Amino acid sequence: MTTHDGKPFNREMLESLVRRRCFYLPSFEPYGGVKGLYDYGAPLCGIQTNVVNEWRKHFVKREKMFELDCSVLTPYDVLKTSGHVDRFIDWMCKDPKTGELLRADHLVEDVLEARLNGDKEARGEKVETQEEPAKKKKKAKAMNVKLDDELKKEYEEILAKIDGYNGEELGLLITKHRIKNGDNEVLPPVEYNLMFSTTLGASGPAFLRPETAQAQFLNFASLLEQNQNEMPFASASVGKSYRNEISPRSGLLRVREFLMGEIEMYVDPEGGKKHPRFEEIKDVELAMLDRHTQTAGKTDVRKIAIGKAVADGIVDNETLGYFLVRIQQFMAKIGVDQSKLRFRQHMANEMAHYAADCWDAELLTSYGWIECVGCADRSAYDLTVHMKKTGAALLVRETRKQPLHIEEWQATLDRKKAGPKFKKDGKAIEAAVDALTQEMREKLSLDLEREGKITLEVPEISAGSVELEKELIKIEKATRIENTREYIPNVIEPSFGFGRILYSLLEHSFWTRPDDAARSILSFQPSIAPTKVLLVPLSKNTDFDPLVKRLDYKLSDLGIEAKVDASSVSIGKRYSRNDGMGTPLGITVDFQSIKDATFTLRDRDTTKQVRASEAEILQAVLNLVHERETWADVQARLPAFEGQEVD
Amino acid sequence: MTTHDGKPFNREMLESLVRRRCFYLPSFEPYGGVKGLYDYGAPLCGIQTNVVNEWRKHFVKREKMFELDCSVLTPYDVLKTSGHVDRFIDWMCKDPKTGELLRADHLVEDVLEARLNGDKEARGEKVETQEEPAKKKKKAKAMNVKLDDELKKEYEEILAKIDGYNGEELGLLITKHRIKNGDNEVLPPVEYNLMFSTTLGASGPAFLRPETAQAQFLNFASLLEQNQNEMPFASASVGKSYRNEISPRSGLLRVREFLMGEIEMYVDPEGGKKHPRFEEIKDVELAMLDRHTQTAGKTDVRKIAIGKAVADGIVDNETLGYFLVRIQQFMAKIGVDQSKLRFRQHMANEMAHYAADCWDAELLTSYGWIECVGCADRSAYDLTVHMKKTGAALLVRETRKQPLHIEEWQATLDRKKAGPKFKKDGKAIEAAVDALTQEMREKLSLDLEREGKITLEVPEISAGSVELEKELIKIEKATRIENTREYIPNVIEPSFGFGRILYSLLEHSFWTRPDDAARSILSFQPSIAPTKVLLVPLSKNTDFDPLVKRLDYKLSDLGIEAKVDASSVSIGKRYSRNDGMGTPLGITVDFQSIKDATFTLRDRDTTKQVRASEAEILQAVLNLVHERETWADVQARLPAFEGQEVD
Hints:
The structure is a homodimer.
Chain A: H1 11-20, E1 24-26, E2 38-40, H2 42-61, E3 66-68, E4 73-75, H3 76-81, H4 84-87, E5 89-94, E6 101-103, H5 104-122, H6 134-139, H7 149-160, H8 167-176, E7 190-193, E8 197-200, E9 204-208, H9 213-218, H10 220-226, E10 233-242, E11 257-267, H11 278-281, E12 285-289, H12 291-295, E13 302-305, H13 306-311, H14 318-334, E14 341-345, E15 357-365, E16 368-379, H15 381-390, E17 396-413, H16 415-422, H17 426-434, H18 438-451, E18 453-457, E19 465-469, E20 473-487, E21 490-497, H19 498-509, E22 510-513, E23 516-522, E24 533-537, H20 545-557, E25 562-564, H21 571-579, E26 585-589, H22 591-596, E27 598-603, E28 609-613, H23 614-625, H24 631-637, E29 640-641
Parallel strand pairs in A: 3-10, 12-14, 24-25, 24-26
Antiparallel strand pairs in A: 1-2, 4-9, 5-6, 5-7, 8-9, 10-11, 11-21, 12-13, 14-15, 15-16, 16-21, 17-20, 18-19, 22-23, 26-27, 27-28, 28-29
């Protein structure tokens, strides 16, 4: 992977930078830390708040979604019904010698990748170690053995499909390719549920939610009422979800506790799931990797306009397509490198148990392509199972514009005569008549015409069946008018993992000065940067203090986060330190400032400076932070400042 | 309790309103709900986001705190060390007949309040039923029995101190006053731990955090480094915490999962915990109920300037006092009724195990005075116990401005001679010398002078003691210069429960139209209201649509949440419905608008309207929402519109 200026990306440098500046840290470090749990320090916490706010603006507010804040603690019954108790699992292999529990797909992946690397070394090709986390390397060492061409191809195809295998298939791969944990054979893959369980006071067993979706679905009836019974509409939720990985790795990319943003768009399953604003975005092109390409063992991405993708059936429907485009626009807004974004369709056996179609927005990082947003068509799965279980009306009742005329066979028992005749059996017989299918009714109407009576099976009565004469029953074709339509909505769900997006953003924003590779920069968009302006007095001379304080208060009044760095190192060092925090702008207070109240304004990415009056500088800051001007604009209209950055 | 216009507050009306408008709902309602878990619907979720943003602005940004986002999942060891495993408990009484578990303090409170109400009825006084939740009433019925004057006074004193009793004391009260659960005797109070427990994959037992504080403390060393080793500073965190109530009641006021905002301000314990900005706020008056007043069984509140309260020792120090004032200012900003806010000091036995002093900001609701913010001086408790347990350096090392000259007894072993003489015992002997206290050294120096040798206990060597002659050891008074000072900071912690603040805000904002008690209004500040502007076309006439859409898009561009209500009910009904959602402003699009592009702007609280051009109306909205103008200002400068609200 390369940085935006085409140099090789260096993960170790980024990791050292974010560690030094406390972007994130292992949680509970004095206690040795806990795998898969991280604390966000002030810089990343600030970025997270800005990204979430942007998300709210881009999705929730613009599309007038109903935002909910639901309980994380979720009773057992809810997640039993949703299928998570039985199917939210990973496949685990136990190493019986060491007692280690290993994710079966990770084990296969590690070993095959190591063999492929060994093959490359044997062939004298370059091995891209950057692509793999340090931990993997330790587990499965490259053996420097050349592989048969056929076998090499087979390994590559397995790796391309690695997310799509079930437990049995993984077991077969492990046997066939003699995959081991080091030198140890492993036991066949078994299910391991990924939810954290706990107990609610006196109210029984519960889990920490694996997604925010279920609680949103259970509020569907209230939401529909709030929306004055109009379809379609969406609910949304931002909150933490949990996944009890047995032994997580890959830093921020695979954690046990994570912030999600989930949108549930409720749509009518009839009429092709059209979206009212699809027209506006139909020409936007996306980089797509569809199911068929992957099933063929390939990873070639095609650029396709979403309108064409939906028309050609590559993307199932307009609503799904609309969100894919909106996701791409969101990624652009927060500063994700658009050349490192692709949309990958899930393969059939890779999809979650509730999904009918699913596209992941994946971002390219030094760990490979990472799923950051899942965009699934959950069909009517969840609403249906909850309705069936609880009887709650999780459906839409709408008045038909045109009443529906249904021609059908109607079967009517004459109650006045049947009642006295059948006495206690009457109810069961009536129920049996009501339960007759259209086909049965048609057949029985012929019997009735031909023989003047019919024989009806009624298992509930002692005789087992009953004869009904013409006088007792009427069966005839008639037209019924249906004014109301009832249906269970389908759900299109874009689901965002903010932690993964933030990590990718760190990698995409990272580069080093062309003239000094030791100087790291994080080029965040001004709207996303945790601090917008660095205030730097030239030295510790106290004459600068009132000016620094005044600028600080004025920026604060303008709602712009500023930070003062009055430490005793050189101005150049202070700027460089804050380039590594991603602070886009800097204002220097120098002796000239004391004389004429002018200040210099510095741009992080170009390190160029301009000099102007306080009012002009503040206005330029405001324009830059709110993205009403670019640095080039500011540079064009304000006088340049050519003073050296003293090192 | 009364509403802001002096009428009796009606909780049932508010509850019906918030239910109808989906402010909050029991979580997982189709499954019967779970006690103590609530989902926030769109209106309350929007208010919460606004209040949290205001909190970030008011505290985190203004005071440049380090905001952290830490793990909710917390390993056992951390909370064992912090004392929560042993002391984060409630006292429970079991009813052996029904198997019910009851909070001991609630039981005492319920029964004594019922008896006092019975006494009032017997005396023919009015019983304020509004003050108590419906559920309490059911449990302990008023008996209509007149109490002895002495006994009545004793009951009132117990209730004033109810939060301050431990398990033993509650047990004694239950025995002495024959307190029962209905007709059943209860067993003596026992401890019940309030944390949710779970297991972290292969990493062992854990809890859901009961507070965000512990993870913040464990980051202290990194934070201090980020702050370039300067003191004082603060960290802050917004996130969910958990409390496994056995059987919660009182709606949003007593929940199992809640959003907290916690600030940890790290201060030097020496020099009186002064605050650099105390001077700015020292004249602000607070309504205070101190410890002594309560211990005397009274509840009289005094208005005292914070400067005087600190000077008189009512509030322990400036930093604590500074935050009390900042809390009051925050409450004012979000619209809490200032006449329903008081600061109550914890009594000695009521404080959490870590606290040295604590003041609660309490808000008056129909449930009584509710603790919404706790402001505690946690002393050095937490940092000390974690440092002791883990060895992490959770302390400050600072260079003394004036080096400290310490006169002390120094004892020095002559290593060159001692080494060959004592061989393998040498190290133990040297350690024993180093471990000598100042008193011992002084005494031994006299021995050495008198007898030319000393006898030193060294339990680690086989002989158990050793003789050291003058040639081997020197003991003398000397001056040591200490350039560095080491100390463990104290922590002042304002801790906010957002759910309780939001509920109180609902009660404080609620009133009904003077001319129509059926019309409910929620008078939120514009900055807090979930929707700022209601857009109302006069009728379903499609000629209004382009104008409504244009206004909607323009408001959206200005960052102002607008909502269109084009339902077919009258304009009056639509306004009234949105008064109950707390929407402060309304714009009507009528036939005049089509002709001349003027619109009416309506104020929720007065129902008055003005009419002006689109630009003027949008500018007025912007000013009102950002609180740069009041409605009175707008009304004074724009022409009034006298059209009736058609009902």
